[in-house]
Amino acid sequence: ASAIFPFSVDCQTVRTRGHLYKIIKYKSMAPRYEIAVGLQRGHKTTKIPSGKTKADKVRPARLKGIQTKHTKFVRDLIREVVGHAPYEKRAMELLKVSKDKRALKFLKRRLGTHIRAKRKREELSNILTQMRKAQATHK
């Protein structure tokens, strides 16, 4: 048995309720040799991902939600041209006077969920800090 399996085996036969059962106990793993038989047979190599097989490619569904350079550029350009929505301006005013909790409540009412409101508050506070830095460098 040890010639086929890459580990040493202790085999035992047990009779219970009129049935014979073989109990195989694996003692210890022996070093893995490249042998021509068994489940792990043959010379082991590392596969080179070719991209030709289905397993190598990333499915398009997995790419959902990943922002590309192009979409980031387009959104930044639109934000620069159009500006902020009225509710965003109001939230920024609340953040300017350090009413963070009130801004979060306001954004939650407008956006619908707590997580989206937190994300929007963080985004608007980052914009405010960038504006402050830009004003500091101009002066």
TrEMBL record:
Record's subunit section: Component of the large ribosomal subunit.
GO BP annotations, alphabetical order: translation
Keyword Ribonucleoprotein: yes
Entry keywords, A to Z: Ribonucleoprotein, Ribosomal protein
Domain of life: Eukaryota
Name of the protein in its database record: 60S ribosomal protein L36
Recorded family membership: Belongs to the eukaryotic ribosomal protein eL36 family.
Organism: Anoplophora glabripennis
GO molecular function: structural constituent of ribosome
Organism placement in taxonomy: Eukaryota, Metazoa, Ecdysozoa, Arthropoda, Hexapoda
